[in-house]
């Protein structure tokens, strides 16, 4: 048993601890930068589900910006990501059809006549582009603006569909009514 | 000449490095862990702001506790107002999803709280814009859990999660 072994072990231990703390420090720092970037600028999102076809297909990758919601600049026709009103841990991706005060048509399968209602203050009316296969405001009603997390501005994948997103295929005409 | 320029550049580099570390960490801390806020209004009297506009309480808001949207009946929480997304309101949680409660001044006498929603009320009934006005609110609007009063010093206390017995739910859904 050599006499300089204990001090060698101590030095190795100190350098390992030093490296670990530095690694934790960098992880914390970059984690915070990543959080601020996503929260206040934007990030990449993978969409799943058929409710926004043909504009967004299942497993498409899009870029969502989070500046519009902080400046309350979401407009009719925007495709937004929001927290689901019935499950806050999951997200929904729909198109904004009506802002507060707008008149929207609520198609109920049971009603023969189309009824309409007005979007309450502080809420938005969402509909998926694939009207036959979308659970949206026609089912759960208007959702509070505070649930909106970001606005999708660009499709990244698949590459043959790269670019800005198309307008609604359902012929909504958005006028300031 | 040369040393002074070198010192200025090194100072700038150190300042920028500190800035890019301190700002994201502080912002993330205030968004995700905890922050403080001044309470305005009389809707939570006498628990908060008993002195009215003369002295507003300052409360500690704990984001970390609600990161998984777990709240208990009786908690005092802050949430984004469903009628005005620019404003945050502070109320007490009265009922969770699945509970049936008797309302005070709502258009329906009895309400079953839907999945993913909660029912909030201010302690000062009649002077409170709460679920009796706008119905159950989505848990996604939860902002933080108010745990302590920090100012004024004579009102330092831990805010207890007490559900007033007369506001207890009529029926609780067993999970």
From TrEMBL, chain A:
A UniProt-annotated Pfam family: Peptidase_S26
Subcellular location: Mitochondrion inner membrane
Domain Peptidase S26: 30-104, 114-157
Residues at the catalytic site: 51, 94
Source superkingdom: Eukaryota
The EC number(s) this enzyme carries: 3.4.21.-
BP-aspect Gene Ontology terms: protein processing involved in protein targeting to mitochondrion; signal peptide processing
Any single Gene Ontology cellular-component annotation: mitochondrial inner membrane peptidase complex
Broad class of the protein's primary localization: mitochondrion
Family matches, as Gene3D superfamilies: Umud Fragment, subunit A
Keyword Mitochondrion: yes
Keywords: Hydrolase, Membrane, Mitochondrion, Mitochondrion inner membrane, Protease
GO molecular function ontology, one term from the record: serine-type endopeptidase activity
InterPro entries: LexA/Signal_pep-like_sf, Mito_IMP1_subunit, Pept_S26A_signal_pept_1, Peptidase_S26
Function: Catalyzes the removal of transit peptides required for the targeting of proteins from the mitochondrial matrix, across the inner membrane, into the inter-membrane space. Known to process the nuclear encoded protein DIABLO.
Family, as annotated: Belongs to the peptidase S26 family. IMP1 subfamily.
Subunit structure: Heterodimer of 2 subunits, IMMPL1 and IMMPL2.
Protein name: Mitochondrial inner membrane protease subunit
Protein's gene: IMMP1L
Automatic annotation (TrEMBL), chain B:
EC number: 3.4.21.-
Subcellular localization: Mitochondrion inner membrane
Topology within the bilayer: Single-pass membrane protein
BP GO terms, sorted: protein processing involved in protein targeting to mitochondrion; signal peptide processing
Keywords: Hydrolase, Membrane, Mitochondrion, Mitochondrion inner membrane, Protease, Transmembrane, Transmembrane helix
Keyword Metal-binding: no
CDD domains (alphabetical): S26_SPase_I
GO molecular function: serine-type endopeptidase activity
Domain (Peptidase S26) ranges: 14-104, 106-151
Major localization listed first in the record, in broad terms: mitochondrion
Positions annotated as active site in the UniProt record: 43, 91
GO cellular component, one term: mitochondrial inner membrane peptidase complex
Gene3D superfamilies (UniProt xref): Umud Fragment, subunit A
Record-stated family: Belongs to the peptidase S26 family. IMP2 subfamily.
Subunit structure: Heterodimer of 2 subunits, IMMPL1 and IMMPL2.
Function: Catalyzes the removal of transit peptides required for the targeting of proteins from the mitochondrial matrix, across the inner membrane, into the inter-membrane space. Known to process the nuclear encoded protein DIABLO.
Name of this chain's protein: Mitochondrial inner membrane protease subunit
Gene behind the chain: IMMP2L
